[in-house]
Design a protein that fits this description.
The chain is α+β, with helices and mostly antiparallel strands. The protein has helices at residues 10-16, 19-25, 82-85, 107-111, 124-129, 133-136, and strands spanning 34-39, 52-58, 64-70, 76-81, 102-106, 138-143, 148-153, 157-165. 18% of the residues lie in helices and 29% in strands. This is alpha-galactosidase.
Length: 180
């Protein structure tokens, strides 16, 4: 963060303090996310810049994180198929996760109703294992096997979604490049 925390707006500070966002940042698995979709010809902003991006990665417990980024000049509906979301697990939609149903949680929906989460008093790893909803977010839908997820993303904004397997309870079959 390249800003003075004392001058941040309450909205910006609440994003930085969001327990579900911190849980993703402090995920015990510690893996990076991957860019799986980049569209450069979106509606430009007043500076002539535009970009639509989908980032995804594997989290502890078999969950999957999906970030939808709209760096364009107008609100946009962004979608990603399960084939795109799990492209790093296996090529061309062959990952078994593509054939599963996935719950979709939006952490922001829960934050307004939840009690404050204190990361210094709790272990993120243990609380993720115990399904603490303050870290996982509130379930807002499901993605059918082979389906896609779409959400409206305001201009110059991002949305974060956590996917959790309905069928396998988080067990994942993942192959590294060396195994393929």
């Amino acid at each position: 963060m390249g800003d003075d925390l004392h001058t941040l707006s309450p909205t910006a500070l609440s994003i930085l303090n969001h327990p579900a966002a911190i849980a993703v940042n402090q995920d015990p698995k510690g893996r990076s996310v991957y860019l799986v979709h980049h569209e450069k010809d979106a509606a430009p902003d007043i500076f002539g810049l535009s970009s639509i991006q989908v980032w995804t990665g594997t989290l502890y417990g078999g969950d999957q994180i999906v970030f939808l980024l709209n760096a364009g000049g107008k609100d946009t509906k962004i979608s990603a198929s399960l084939e795109e979301i799990f492209t790093h697990d296996r090529p061309e939609g062959s990952a078994p996760q593509v054939k599963e149903e996935w719950e979709t949680a939006e952490p922001e929906k829960l934050f307004k109703d939840a009690k404050v989460y204190n990361g210094t008093e709790h272990s993120y790893k243990e609380d993720l294992k115990n399904n603490d909803s303050r870290l996982l977010g509130k379930k807002i839908g499901e993605i059918a096997a082979g389906g896609s997820w779409a959400a409206k993303v305001n201009k110059h904004s991002a949305e974060m979604f956590r996917l959790r397997s309905v069928d396998s309870g988080g067990k994942r079959e993942i192959h590294s490049k060396k195994e393929l």
